[in-house]
């Protein structure tokens, strides 16, 4: 009889992924059974414990994996030292990202819509807001996405990789749509991300199909075996199939990394998504996707004949050059903080690809370090963005020239760069932290970014790709300008208001009855502190102006920012330890 | 050197760093005593340096070069860099200069910044600067040097913009930052090339191998390395074509100008080139460019100096010109290295003294910097006048003051060689000395001699600003006096028996003495005659005759010199405008071509398109089209290269 024989499964090796996914399932159940009051606390605790547990599992596996890669179910799950290290980076970044997600600030509101399904602008939406609902499903969604990211770089099977890609993407699409403010923008971003993501997935699957056609298997090791001995497979004599297939698979992965020409979604989605989610996905998705890219690229590159391998290198060169150019040049003209960081993230994708062109150990070590450095700076920077807000003052408060009182309605984030002028006086520590993250992204010495950039560029030089390294140095020199521009704006430029220490921006005066009655009209009404010249009680109550304010953190975001800042500094000053670990992880690649 | 003393090296960097950390992190709590802590940190560093110096003097010459390795800093595949400190006569010379002059300027600042609410922060930055500068000169590898290099840049940026409320300061800070970035790029590229050629960036590996590297890697690579190092040096030392930031950097507090923009940081470029001597010798073309840049800058700075009415900017132009001398010397090869450093040392003393004097004058004149409103101050500010006078004679190179020994040696060295070079470089250096004498005398006479062009509040001074000049407090005059003593005696003491040149020999190597193309006595005479002419001319114009309070209309040359020989226009036309056009063009292309194109296409399809556009966002498909098109292009590239 056909007895079912359960395949032996090395549960310990799968544990980093399993813990997180199981916690996600548990989180869905909690939604149903835990009363609304305690839901947020329970979900948050579960998420943090699960992520921490996953990190511990990674740590316990470290030494074991150093000796030989662990293959589970014939390579469906393949834990290499590099994959494990990527899991560690993803885990650390996810943990920090979740802290920012959990931040409710002194206003008591988190960054997410009370009920994401409510149509924007409807009465139902108002009702949910008044009722103080909370969308605690975001935590299980984050756990699922993280689970997918952990699985992504740790498989030898292209189909499993595709499943992981979808598992990490689908929750992210939803999360992007859940912003509390500017909901239309947020939903538009999610939609764009979804459509373009689906397109990229299609390319990926088509690539898998071609590779399968060539090799008759979707296991990367199997493909390498066919490459070595083409007679094994019926279509083994058509290596063009594997080249085209590989390029398509790479396209799907480069989309996730945000490398040009697959970058177009990045600015829109980063801008529209709730900022904590932007930070989370910018850091973690990129790490996971680079992990998968290294997995595919390095494994297949070993098997390819030199000519085909050269073709792949050419493609990587093209992508790297294009990405660095797009990210740097377009980044220089941005006027929105989140868009600027998005383009910076594109430029970083370019630098990462520069590190990979050699397809060797030196490159993967450099890339690992880069991912950590980039992840810390990115999460920290977006966390800072969540705390810089607009606030509307109405009535008498708007008219006074004196210090602005601490009340008034706090609105969304002040993301226009001009609004950040003079922030240094209002929140020196926050400004210092943000400057540090920007300097790290710029690659100034004594920050993690410098060591990271130096690493990828010297890896490229080592691999003979010195024109790429030179271009990279030039691109980062240009990029320095737009990072420093922001620092100069925050530290040296006085607030646009000038009157007091509060950066007041675009004061709007609405002299309602004046417009209709006396005919002075809003055109005649001076803005800003000039609004004080308006008289008449009726006008006075309708005058409002928007100022930029920094809301206090209730702890988690401040903690995350501090950890990121210390991390960026430590990795910059004493990179030896992290480089050692990255070196260990890069040594062995099957 | 004994091991115990050698192991003190990290403390040279750590001591001021701790001072900076306490002052910058301690916040307002440290306000009351913070400035004295800053002075103490700097003085303690000097003492540590002195102990090491005395120990080194007791060791035989061949054992004076040592490296103290603390540990591995970066170990990443091909790149292995140790965290180590290079202790040799060259670095110790810098240590002594930086800490000694630095300490004096710390003391001076205690009084100068007395009324500033942020005095503690100022001292924190000063300490940070000292730490970074010492790291720069003590580093045993280009990478570690680069950390110090960036550190001094950061400190300079922070200090120029110290009074950050003022717009000009912010702009000046930005300009300095940008120009320095251009230079830094040179250093980074040089490091990449070194890594690719020698497989290392530490001095111990690279410098001895320079000669073999030239044969192995080819002359072109070595020339590229040399030129990139020169670019770095130009950025930091304000040499052509990256000179424009120095004048604007004078917006910072005067002690900063004295310490950073005259005595120490701006000389880092000279240090870099002298340290990299073997690399430059392996690349004669690059070496020649170094000398040319130095010669051009020394004239450029001198010409600009003659037309400046702002006392600090005149001194800044003079700094540029004097560093030009040092670069010229560094470009002359081993024969010039020692003289470059010698002049750097004496210049550090007299230029710091001159700047502190200028600060003292400004202090007396309500922070006015316009020399056309000074005059007749010698009687009222006797100490300042005497100390500045000694500095003035020193920079002129009048015997027996310091400058005579160092500058004259450079002029002499410039006349050594064959072919056109000695004549061009020598005559330039000679001419520079004459112009220097003119503009420095102009500065001195306009400030201290002649009739006063300010009002003491009495009747009869229509329109002149009212001032109440008074001598500065002791805390300010003492550092000036000490520096003046140095300006007088240091050169002579170190020149006796070529003492300084011998001291540097373990690093720079022994240079054979060559005879200049003209006899030495003639050169000295010529120099002194030119200097005397310069003084005389200035005396007639600015001490005998009345100085007009508004700059008179002048010929085209003077007007050009007043605006720094149009350096900003050149920068604007060559760098800034094209940059702006490029960004503008990009924005325009984005709007007109990308957006417009897609919108136009949609419009062209007709009403259906317009209606669809309202229902769904039109951009997604443009994104998708980008992806597909991009993939197509990548595929095409691969296909084209494969077939």
Automatic annotation (TrEMBL), chain A:
<dbReference type="Pfam" id="PF00361">
    <property type="entry name" value="Proton_antipo_M"/>
</dbReference>
<feature type="compositionally biased region" description="Gly residues">
    <location>
        <begin position="516"/>
        <end position="527"/>
    </location>
</feature>
<comment type="subunit">
    <text>NDH-1 is composed of 14 different subunits. Subunits NuoA, H, J, K, L, M, N constitute the membrane sector of the complex.</text>
</comment>
<feature type="domain" description="NADH:quinone oxidoreductase/Mrp antiporter transmembrane">
    <location>
        <begin position="156"/>
        <end position="477"/>
    </location>
</feature>
<feature type="transmembrane region" description="Helical">
    <location>
        <begin position="82"/>
        <end position="102"/>
    </location>
</feature>
<keyword id="KW-0813">Transport</keyword>
<feature type="transmembrane region" description="Helical">
    <location>
        <begin position="365"/>
        <end position="388"/>
    </location>
</feature>
<feature type="transmembrane region" description="Helical">
    <location>
        <begin position="12"/>
        <end position="32"/>
    </location>
</feature>
<keyword id="KW-1278">Translocase</keyword>
<keyword id="KW-0874">Quinone</keyword>
<keyword id="KW-1003">Cell membrane</keyword>
<keyword id="KW-0520">NAD</keyword>
<feature type="transmembrane region" description="Helical">
    <location>
        <begin position="429"/>
        <end position="452"/>
    </location>
</feature>
<protein>
    <recommendedName>
        <fullName>NADH-quinone oxidoreductase subunit N</fullName>
        <ecNumber>7.1.1.-</ecNumber>
    </recommendedName>
</protein>
<feature type="transmembrane region" description="Helical">
    <location>
        <begin position="314"/>
        <end position="333"/>
    </location>
</feature>
<feature type="transmembrane region" description="Helical">
    <location>
        <begin position="464"/>
        <end position="484"/>
    </location>
</feature>
<keyword id="KW-1133">Transmembrane helix</keyword>
<feature type="transmembrane region" description="Helical">
    <location>
        <begin position="138"/>
        <end position="154"/>
    </location>
</feature>
<dbReference type="InterPro" id="IPR010096">
    <property type="entry name" value="NADH-Q_OxRdtase_suN/2"/>
</dbReference>
<keyword id="KW-0560">Oxidoreductase</keyword>
<feature type="transmembrane region" description="Helical">
    <location>
        <begin position="160"/>
        <end position="179"/>
    </location>
</feature>
<comment type="similarity">
    <text>Belongs to the complex I subunit 2 family.</text>
</comment>
<keyword id="KW-0812">Transmembrane</keyword>
<feature type="region of interest" description="Disordered">
    <location>
        <begin position="510"/>
        <end position="529"/>
    </location>
</feature>
<feature type="transmembrane region" description="Helical">
    <location>
        <begin position="44"/>
        <end position="62"/>
    </location>
</feature>
<comment type="function">
    <text>NDH-1 shuttles electrons from NADH, via FMN and iron-sulfur (Fe-S) centers, to quinones in the respiratory chain. The immediate electron acceptor for the enzyme in this species is believed to be a menaquinone. Couples the redox reaction to proton translocation (for every two electrons transferred, four hydrogen ions are translocated across the cytoplasmic membrane), and thus conserves the redox energy in a proton gradient.</text>
</comment>
<feature type="transmembrane region" description="Helical">
    <location>
        <begin position="340"/>
        <end position="359"/>
    </location>
</feature>
<feature type="transmembrane region" description="Helical">
    <location>
        <begin position="276"/>
        <end position="294"/>
    </location>
</feature>
<feature type="transmembrane region" description="Helical">
    <location>
        <begin position="557"/>
        <end position="579"/>
    </location>
</feature>
<keyword id="KW-0472">Membrane</keyword>
<dbReference type="InterPro" id="IPR001750">
    <property type="entry name" value="ND/Mrp_TM"/>
</dbReference>
<feature type="transmembrane region" description="Helical">
    <location>
        <begin position="191"/>
        <end position="215"/>
    </location>
</feature>
<feature type="transmembrane region" description="Helical">
    <location>
        <begin position="235"/>
        <end position="255"/>
    </location>
</feature>
<dbReference type="GO" id="GO:0016491">
    <property type="term" value="F:oxidoreductase activity"/>
</dbReference>
């Amino acid at each position: 009889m056909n007895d079912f024989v359960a395949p032996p499964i090395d549960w310990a090796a799968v544990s980093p992924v399993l813990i997180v996914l199981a916690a996600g399932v548990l989180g869905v159940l909690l939604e149903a059974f835990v009363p609304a009051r305690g839901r947020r606390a329970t979900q948050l605790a579960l998420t943090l414990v699960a992520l921490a547990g996953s990190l511990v599992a990674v740590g316990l596996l470290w030494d074991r994996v150093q000796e030989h890669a662990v293959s589970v179910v014939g390579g469906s799950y393949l834990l290499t030292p590099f994959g494990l290290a990527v899991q560690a980076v993803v885990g650390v970044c996810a943990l920090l990202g979740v802290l920012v997600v959990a931040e409710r600030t002194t206003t008591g509101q988190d960054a997410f819509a009370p009920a994401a399904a409510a149509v924007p602008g409807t009465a139902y939406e108002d009702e949910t807001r008044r009722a103080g609902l909370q969308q605690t499903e975001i935590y299980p969604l984050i756990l699922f996405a993280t689970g997918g990211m952990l699985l992504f770089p740790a498989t030898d099977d292209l189909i499993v990789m595709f499943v992981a890609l979808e598992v990490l993407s689908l929750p992210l699409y939803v999360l992007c749509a859940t912003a509390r403010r500017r909901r239309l923008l947020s939903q538009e971003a999610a939609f764009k991300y979804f459509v373009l993501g689906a397109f990229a997935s299609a390319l990926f699957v088509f690539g898998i199909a071609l590779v399968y056609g060539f090799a008759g298997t979707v296991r990367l090791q199997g493909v390498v075996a066919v490459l070595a001995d083409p007679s094994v497979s019926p279509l083994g004599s058509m290596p063009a199939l594997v080249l085209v297939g590989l390029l398509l698979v790479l396209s799907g992965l480069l989309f996730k990394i945000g490398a040009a020409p697959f970058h177009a979604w990045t600015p829109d989605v980063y801008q529209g998504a709730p900022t904590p989610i932007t930070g989370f996905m910018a850091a973690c998705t990129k790490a996971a996707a680079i992990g998968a890219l290294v997995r595919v690229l390095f494994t297949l590159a070993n098997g390819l004949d030199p000519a085909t391998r050269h073709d792949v290198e050419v493609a990587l060169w093209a992508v790297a050059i294009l990405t660095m150019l797009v990210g740097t040049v377009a980044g220089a003209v941005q006027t929105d903080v989140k868009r600027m960081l998005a383009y910076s993230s594109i430029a970083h994708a370019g630098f990462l690809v520069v590190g990979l062109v050699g397809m060797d150990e030196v490159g993967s070590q450099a890339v690992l370090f880069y991912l950590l450095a980039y992840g810390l700076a990115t999460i920290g920077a977006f966390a800072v963005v969540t705390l810089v807000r607009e606030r509307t003052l109405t009535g008498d408060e708007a008219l006074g020239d004196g210090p602005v009182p601490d009340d008034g309605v706090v609105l969304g984030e002040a993301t226009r760069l001009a609004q950040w002028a003079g922030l240094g006086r209002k929140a020196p520590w926050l400004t210092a932290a943000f400057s540090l993250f920007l300097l790290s992204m710029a690659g100034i010495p004594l920050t993690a970014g410098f060591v990271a950039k130096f690493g990828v560029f010297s890896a490229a030089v080592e691999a003979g790709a010195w024109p790429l390294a030179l271009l990279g140095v030039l691109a980062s020199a240009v990029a320095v300008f737009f990072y420093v521009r922001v620092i100069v704006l925050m530290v040296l430029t006085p607030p646009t208001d000038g009157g007091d220490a509060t950066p007041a921006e675009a004061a709007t005066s609405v002299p309602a009855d004046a417009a209709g009655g006396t005919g002075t009209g809003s055109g005649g009404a001076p803005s800003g502190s000039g609004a004080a010249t308006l008289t008449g009680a009726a006008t006075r109550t309708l005058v409002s102006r928007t100022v930029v304010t920094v809301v206090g953190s209730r702890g988690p975001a401040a903690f995350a920012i501090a950890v990121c800042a210390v991390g960026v500094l430590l990795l910059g000053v004493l990179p030896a330890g992290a480089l050692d670990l990255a070196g260990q992880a890069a040594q062995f690649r099957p | 050197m004994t091991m115990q003393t050698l192991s003190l090296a990290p403390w040279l960097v750590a001591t001021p760093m701790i001072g900076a950390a306490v002052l910058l992190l301690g916040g307002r709590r440290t306000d009351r005593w913070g400035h004295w802590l800053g002075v103490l940190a700097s003085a303690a560093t000097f003492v540590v340096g002195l102990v090491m110096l005395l120990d080194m003097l007791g060791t035989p010459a061949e054992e004076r070069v040592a490296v103290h390795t603390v540990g591995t800093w970066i170990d990443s595949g091909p790149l292995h860099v140790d965290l180590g400190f290079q202790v040799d006569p060259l670095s110790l010379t810098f240590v002594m200069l930086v800490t000694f002059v630095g300490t004096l300027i710390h003391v001076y600042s205690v009084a100068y910044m007395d009324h500033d609410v942020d005095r503690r922060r100022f001292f924190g930055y000063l300490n940070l600067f000292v730490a970074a500068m010492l790291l720069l000169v003590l580093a045993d590898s280009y990478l570690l040097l680069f950390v110090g290099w960036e550190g001094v840049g950061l400190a300079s940026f922070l200090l120029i913009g110290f009074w950050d409320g003022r717009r000009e300061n912010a702009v000046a800070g930005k300009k300095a930052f940008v120009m320095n970035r251009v230079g830094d790029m040179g250093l980074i590229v040089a490091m990449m090339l070194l890594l690719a050629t020698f497989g290392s960036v530490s001095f111990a590996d690279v410098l001895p191998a320079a000669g073999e590297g030239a044969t192995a890697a080819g002359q072109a690579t070595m020339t590229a390395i040399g030129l990139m190092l020169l670019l770095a040096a130009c950025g930091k030392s304000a040499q052509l074509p990256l000179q424009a930031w120095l004048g604007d950097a004078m917006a910072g507090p005067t002690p900063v100008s004295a310490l950073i923009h005259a005595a120490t940081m701006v000389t880092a470029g000279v240090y870099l080139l002298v340290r990299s001597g073997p690399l430059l010798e392996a690349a004669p073309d690059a070496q020649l460019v170094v000398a040319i840049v130095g010669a051009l800058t020394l004239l450029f700075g001198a010409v600009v100096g003659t037309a400046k009415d702002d006392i600090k900017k005149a001194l800044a132009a003079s700094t540029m010109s004097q560093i030009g001398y040092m670069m010229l010397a560094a470009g002359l090869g081993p024969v010039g290295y020692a003289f470059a450093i010698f002049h750097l040392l004496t210049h550090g003393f007299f230029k710091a003294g001159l700047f502190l004097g200028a600060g003292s004058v400004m202090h007396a004149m309500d922070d006015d910097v316009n020399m056309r409103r000074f005059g007749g101050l010698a009687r009222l500010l006797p100490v300042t006048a005497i100390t500045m006078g000694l500095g003035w004679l020193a920079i002129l190179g009048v015997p027996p003051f310091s400058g005579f020994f160092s500058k004259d040696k450079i002029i002499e060295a410039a006349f050594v060689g064959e072919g056109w070079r000695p004549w061009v470089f020598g005559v330039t250096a000679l001419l520079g000395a004459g112009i220097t004498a003119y503009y420095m005398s102009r500065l001195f006479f306009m400030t201290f001699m002649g009739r006063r062009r300010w009002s003491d509040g009495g009747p009869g001074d229509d329109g002149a600003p009212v001032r109440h000049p008074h001598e500065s407090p002791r805390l300010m005059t003492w550092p000036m006096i000490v520096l003046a003593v140095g300006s007088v005696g240091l050169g002579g003491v170190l020149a006796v028996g070529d003492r300084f040149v011998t001291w540097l020999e373990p690093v720079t190597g022994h240079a054979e003495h060559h005879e200049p193309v003209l006899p030495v006595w003639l050169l000295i005479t010529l120099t002194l005659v030119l200097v005397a002419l310069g003084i005389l001319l200035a005396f007639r114009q600015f001490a005998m005759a009345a100085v007009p309070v508004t700059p008179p209309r002048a010929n085209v040359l003077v007007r050009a010199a007043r605006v720094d020989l149009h350096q900003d226009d050149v920068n604007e036309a060559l760098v800034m405008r094209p940059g702006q056009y490029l960004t503008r063009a990009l924005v325009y292309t984005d709007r007109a071509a990308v957006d417009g194109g897609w919108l136009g296409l949609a419009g062209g399809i007709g009403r259906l398109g317009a209606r669809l556009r309202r229902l769904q966002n039109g951009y997604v498909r443009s994104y998708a089209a980008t992806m597909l098109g991009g993939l197509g292009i990548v595929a095409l590239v691969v296909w084209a290269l494969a077939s």
